[in-house]
Amino acid sequence: PEPCPQAPLAVLSKVELRVSCKHLLDRDTLNKSDPCVLLLMQSQGQWMEVDRSEVIKSNLNPVFAKIFTVDYYFEEVQKLRFEVYDSHGQAGVGTHDDDFLGGMECTVGQVSLGTPPVLGDPRPCPLPNAGLSQIVAQKRVTKPLFLKYGKFAGKSTITIISEEISGNNGYVELAFRAKKLDDKVNQVLGGIRAGWPGWALLSLIHLPQDLFSKSDPFLEIYRIDDDRSEQLVYRTEVVKNNLSPIWEPFKVSLNSLCSCEEKRTWGQLNPSFPGGCVVWDYDSRGKHDFIGEFFTTFEEMQKAMGENKVQWDCMNPKYKIKKRNYKNSGVVVLLDLKIHRVYSFLDYIMGGCQIHFTVAIDFTASNGDPRNSCSLHYINPYQPNEYLKALVAVGEICQDYDSDKKFSALGFGARIPPKYEVSHDFAINFNPDNDECEGIQGVVESYQSCLPKIQLYGPTNVAPIISKVARVAADEERTKEASQYFILLILTDGVVTDMADTREAIVRASYLPMSIIIVGVGNADFTDMQILDGDDGVLRSPKGEPVLRDIVQFVPFREFKNASPTALAKCVLAEVPKQVVEYYSYKAFPPRCPRPPTPEPSLGSPQ
Q1: pTM value?
Q2: CA-to-CA distance for 104 and 144, rounded, in angstroms?
Q3: Which residues contact 245 (CB under 8 A, 6 or more apart)?
Q4: 382 and 324 share one domain
Q5: Same domain for 299 and 385
Q6: What is the pLDDT of residues 68-123, one digit of tens each?
Q7: What GO biological process term is on the record, naming one (predicted)?
């Protein structure tokens, strides 16, 4: 069976990538290059073409109209490659007839993994790393293009702009009423009383069902799309026999209302077809009578927030032409407008929220003597142990979302120098003033150098480390901004000894911007650890207080021994985006304003 069945991989979001280049190499003799961009994605070690842009004729600084769309997964490293070619003839881009102008490898979360070129790569250029940058976090990234063997493609650069396609960016609650609408019935009867035979005959044939009552109005809202098509957004209920109806408040998503564009107009472009916001007199036979219409934008409607109200004349274009003193066919009033924003994980990341990663490693005696090859802490020069595998798998994902790439690395359950007293929250770099290491590699090096200096002991107490990270998270909470979220990865070979204190610490931490991932290393019975994972029920403190949010994910590492290296990261990180959104939604903290793109001095400014 596949590991981690409780966390199936699902598309977190879709991201649009827009591409432009500057200072491309000029391969043509008579004209400038005709560039085209290919997007490739790595799948099972092979580069597969996903899509390609149009060819732009004779342009060394192209801005491509093509928008690349990729599925975005937080918990998976998604390797992308952009290749630029000078296209020739009808043979298709990327053939030997085309000139390679440069390429750049990246991931959706970062612009380069810093990994060495893949030998035997079928593509024409095994590319070196292009520097560490974050497409998702920065939204706009500019990097140099490389030719084969790591050679710069002159001054050529490629710029990638990312934008999330938000399936649900919030909703709006609207409350409308109307006043003094035209009475379609009286207009018919008025024509009969006027004694005009033609009008009377027509009216008798098409008498409305509400002949002896007032109009039965309802309201329809249409959105005009970029292709000038009109889409029905909402239709209110019918208010019977009332020329000043008050319709029930209703909710519509921002995406459906205005595609999240505040200046998008609701109105008609085709004069022969009633569009925009339209008021009808209901007819059970479907032959509704047109009362009037009005046009507006979401920007204008927002004036109705609070105590204010906005109103529009409900106009009938035919009456406006025929009647000299025509003013309107009534007015429509927006009584109230409430915006309920629903932010996504990417909204917070693109707003500058950093993911701070802390790892806590179990150094209790049950792991075995690190000098013995049977120990879980044994350092094999040819293959990393389970602790290192779990650390690297999760850490490599998290480091894409932390700008300074410094990670706290802690240990517990060991006797440490100089007095060799048992500690349950010591820095494995033995710097009590700064427990951070430079990148995942720094954590690995500190772990390896730490082992010979400590004595594995016990017990397995993790509450002190949870509380330590929680104190830092509490300081962050007081800023009242969505600026930093904390992930604590606990690697342990057995069931925790201080279960009551751990449950209490987790309940306290559930109110803070943090998540806890526990990976069980080795072959111990971890059944009791499932208590900490809220999947089977709500975790409670010893006093019975429930967690505010489910912030713990527990996984035994042995389930992933035969899985791909990235399977563990996919499983344990799959819930993090939801946990981030849940916390900031609970605190009502919106994403911060996106940081403006910073120019990179090494690239220079275009002339």
Answers
A1: 0.58
A2: 8
A3: 177, 178, 181, 217, 239
A4: no
A5: no
A6: 888 777 767 788 899 999 987 655 555 555 689 999 988 766 432 333 333 234 34
A7: cellular response to calcium ion
